[in-house]
Amino acid sequence: MSFLSRLRKFPFWAWFWFLLGALYFILPLLATFEFSLSWDPAIPFKAYQRSFEDSRFWTSFIASNIFALITIFASIVLVVPTAYWIRLRLPQARRIVEFITLMPFVVPAIILVFGLIRVYSTPFTIPFTDIVFMQPLTQFKLGTNILVIAGYMVLAMPYMYRSVDTGMRTVDILTLTEAAQSLGANWFVIITRVILPNIRSALLSGALLTFAIVVGEVILASFLGVTAFGPYLFLLGQHRAYEPAALSFVSFLLTWFAMGLIQLVTGGQGQAAGAH
Amino acid sequence: MSYLSLSNVTKQFGDTVVVDNFNLDIDKGEFVSFLGPSGCGKTTTLRMVAGFEVPTSGKIMIEGVDITDKAPNQRNVGMIFQSYALFPNMTVAQNIGFGLTVRKEPESVVKSRVAEMISLINLEAHANKYPYQLSGGQQQRVSLARALANRPQVLLLDEPLSALDAKIRVSLRAEIRSIQKALGITAIFVTHDQEEALSISDRIVVMNAGEMEQVGTPFEIYNFPKTRFVANFVGSLNTADAEVVDPTKGLVSVDGVQFTSAEGTKERKKGDKIKVAIRPERFSFAALQHKDNVVDAKIENITFLGSVVRIQVKIGNTNFNMDTFNNPFLELPKIGSIEQVTCSKEAVLVLDE
Amino acid sequence: MAQTIVNSKSNKATTNWKVWLGVVPFFLFALLFLFLPSLRLVTASFTAPDGSFTLDNIRQLFTVPVIVNAYKLSIQISAVTAIGGGIFGFLLAYSVTVGGLPKSLRSVLITFSGVASNFAGVPLAFAFVATLGRQGFITHILRDYFGMDVYAAGFNLYSFAGLSLVYMYFQFPLMVLIMAPALDGLKREWREAAENLGASTTQYWLRVAMPVLLPSILGAMILLFGNAFGAYATAYALTGGRIGIVTIQIGAQIRGDVLYNPGLGYAMAIGMVVIMAISLAGYSWLQAKTERWLK
Q1: How do residues B78-114 score in pLDDT, each as one tens digit?
Q2: B232, B264, B286 — which closes off a domain?
Q3: Residue among A144, A261, A276 with most chain C CBs within 10 A, to mutate
Q4: C197, C208, C213, C217: best mutation site toward chain B, by most B Cβ within 10 Å?
Q5: Mean pLDDT in chain C?
Q6: Residues B90-126, buried b or exposed e (16+ Cβ, 10 A)?
Q7: pLDDT digits over A208-243, tens only?
Q8: Which residues in chain C are contacts of B102 at CB distance < 8 A?
């Protein structure tokens, strides 16, 4: 092949767009990192040091992680049996359940929190009477925690459900169940020893996405007045300069970590969330 | 001079030689099949004719014009793909007219040619449907019409029937053959299915591991396979190790049981180790016909295959299959009994190792 | 085969209401935390302060200037970043799928896109302040090395253009994630068939590839539109609520009745839900169209 035709074959525009995209990705991160180091040239990681010394950082960060874990656990408990049951016995419910799992795209977080506050800020009364049997959920700490976790579950539902459902389809859960039944397994054995191990990577990728959504989430937590990392970072940004940059970079690394793990467990098919 | 010729065509991918020194001349209007197992180089050869692959060395000519280095869209050859490759965004009529419109043919030509092609494949009722609305067989007929609409010099078919059901496969292959004959178009047909190749072709090229094993009419390929590979690949075959007993009389011995072969032992010496091959349908029970090659056979097993009954027999220490046509009054021997079976001298083939 | 098994099961299932018990927890959850809150907003938006039914709130969505402007701004920002992010994301997806770049770059880009499409909200806003703010990294580089003072030239990170640039950061990666599989769906045989029939590369792209991809591209852009339309945290963190997009207005209304009419706040939320629902419906419709073609 001559030099000229080799040159003609060189995918110039492909490289051009790729490099432009790479710059768009990297520059803000680079800038954030550079800025977070520039507080005190003598102590390069001063912003990080200060951030990690703040007890409110740890309180909110740990709170967010606990929220994430509870959300993941509750989502799995809710979604896995539902998806399994629909594949196994109730295929006619597939359309409606899929529709419901898409609803969070139609009701973004800001609307969801608006509705949750309006519904759950009034006391619960026994129907047709004025007798209050429960204070509004927004009035006490456990109540707001329940609301915020339920909200996270709604936001994560599309990803969790799709991930689990795809996992069940690829391993053909119906045949596996029938095979296990024909070999005399009971339901407990089927679920714990056949179903869950086979959708392990789907569960893991759903869980990691949920983690990424919850840890960075700010709307639900701040409007419900719950201590979490998102609102903390936002408030920090109102009156500090260097620490927010440092924590933004840390939070980028966290997202990167979660997404990287997903790539690893799903073998390269990336998924997109949308908690913006 | 031949219509399409491939001379010394070799194709290498890296260090692997996929097609090795391929030579073939095809006459105008001839239907030639490339037959072989997957990976034998048949599809690569076809793709070199289409221009999707460039030969490492060698020359491809159509009507005396060297097309070896021409881009695919500069050649006038039509290609049919195994996966149909119909454009999903276009109707049947738009698919068929595609080649004409990219060549900027006037609209009237496009219209009449499309109508002509649609009636050729009997899909008048489906002209405005999209590919996803058609069955596999219909889609492949559209793909045939699309390739023919350009009036190509050569029609290339890359396993066009492999994705179809058995019944459609048989009817569509008859349809392809009759259209090809009616238009007098030169065609190359790639397949791994020996029955398909035997039924459809004027000539068959049997390929193996990038090399031509044998070229001949279906009759020659089936009845006079030149190599063991061809004999094995085309039709079913009994093969057995044997030893030359008397080269002049064509006498060979299989585990001490003697057979006479009509040909093939002349250039050999007594005591040479060889292979003999006998097709299952050439055996019959001795009472019925032949006088030569009458041997004792122990009936081991009987399998009913529909139109044919396959009987497994043991001659000496070697198992052979013999096929006999089924009929309602067929009397079958008992399993375990010893019967006399026979085959003609011509049926005993002597193969190269 | 599997389909017939499912069907035979489902026939039995319809005669037995008990199988529906299996999905009750899910429906209950959706009812309590998704439908009830949404429905409450719907009913509230049709309720006058005295509790009677009214269409006033809906009518005011189209007449009160601050609301009309909020929708206008949100639609503009969403459209600009959906089209811009869509085109850029498509070109990127093209470059790593059929564009001839090395295979390894593909997984790098897909991973990066997964991260970036999820990296939004407060940290993203801060990252862009550090990049393109008045004292930002790139702002300095452009000023010190290229003599371009972007702020003097009228650029402002806290404006429409700035916010669009920030949104692009999660928009085009989402496009990459949607388009890469769609581009993979282009069969090699289509290209070969087109070439074989005499088409040039341009003709192939114009007459086969682009029409086949068009529903996917449009559908993805609609999804991007909704993605930007629903975004709140990024804009809020960046501008501190000074840019009047719909989500920010709704947020302000939740914090306190800034519109001096609670019903109007609910109506605004419902207007947003309607727009999101239309986007999702459009996306699903286009998606179904492509799937039908490519099946």
Answers
A1: 999 999 999 999 999 999 999 999 999 999 999 999 9
A2: B232
A3: A276
A4: C197
A5: 88
A6: bbbbbbbbbbbbbbebeeeebeebbeebbebbebeeb
A7: 889 988 988 999 999 999 999 999 999 998 888 888
A8: 194, 197-200, 203, 207
Measure in Å the smallest separation between the Cα of C47 and chain A Cα atoms.
14
Structure tokens at A93: 């419910």
| Number of domains making up chain C | 1
- What is residue A183's three-state secondary structure? coil
pLDDT band at B28 (very low <50, low <70, confident <90, very high): very high
Among A61, A113, A114, the residue to mutate for chain C (most C Cβ within 10 A) = A114
Domain span including residue B335: 238-351
Please give the average per-residue pLDDT across C39-53, as a whole number.
88
How far does A150 lie from chain C, in Å, by closest CA?
7
CB pairs under 8 A between B and C: 74
User: Chains A, B in contact: 3+ Cβ pairs under 8 A?
Assistant: no
What pLDDT is attached to residue B288? 56
In angstroms, the CA B190 to CA B187 distance is 10
Contacts of residue B71 in chain C, CB cutoff 8 Å?
195
Residue A106: give its domain's CATH number: 1.10.3720.10
CATH, residue B18: 3.40.50.300
Which residues fall within 8 angstroms of residue A270, CB to CB, at 6 or more apart?
A: A259, A262, A263, C110, C111, C113, C114, C177
**Chain B: residue whose CA lies nearest to C200:** B73
A159: distance to nearest CA of chain C, Å?
12
In a domain, A92, yes or no: yes
Chain A 53-112, residues with CB within 8 Å of chain C CB atoms: 78-79, 81-82, 85-86, 88-93, 97, 100, 102-112
Please tell me which residue of chain A has the smallest CA distance to C249. Answer: A110
CB atoms inside a 10 Å sphere around CB C225: 27
SS3 content of chain B, % helix, strand, coil (to 5): 30, 35, 35
C abuts A (3+ Cβ pairs < 8 Å):
yes
Kind of pairing, strands B318-325 and B308-315? antiparallel
Burial grade of C33 (CB within 10 A; 0-12, 13-18, 19 or more): buried
Question: Are residues C89 and C213 in contact, defined by beta-carbon separation less than 8 angstroms?
Answer: no
Domain containing C79 equals 53-294
Tell if the CB–CB gap between A263 and C94 is shorter than 8 Å. Answer: no
Complex prediction ipTM: 0.86
pLDDT at A271 over 50: no
CA distances A207 to A71, A109, A160, B167, Å, are 9, 19, 7, 49
Please state, in angstroms and rounded to a whole number, the distance separating the CA atoms of residues C21 and C13.
12
Alpha-carbon gap, residue B35 to B204, rounded angstroms: 7
> What is the separation of C-alpha B133 from the centre of its chain, rounded to a whole number of angstroms?
31
CB-CB under 8 Å, C112 with A90: no
Closest chain C CA to residue B71: C195
**Environment class of C102 (CB within 10 Å of its CB; exposed 0-12, middle 13-18, buried 19+):** exposed
Distance CA B16, CA B31 (A): 29
Residue B6, beta-bridge partner list = B24, B60
φ, ψ (nearest 5 deg) of residue B346: -65, -25
B79 lies within 8 A of chain C by CB: yes
Domain that holds residue A76: 55-266
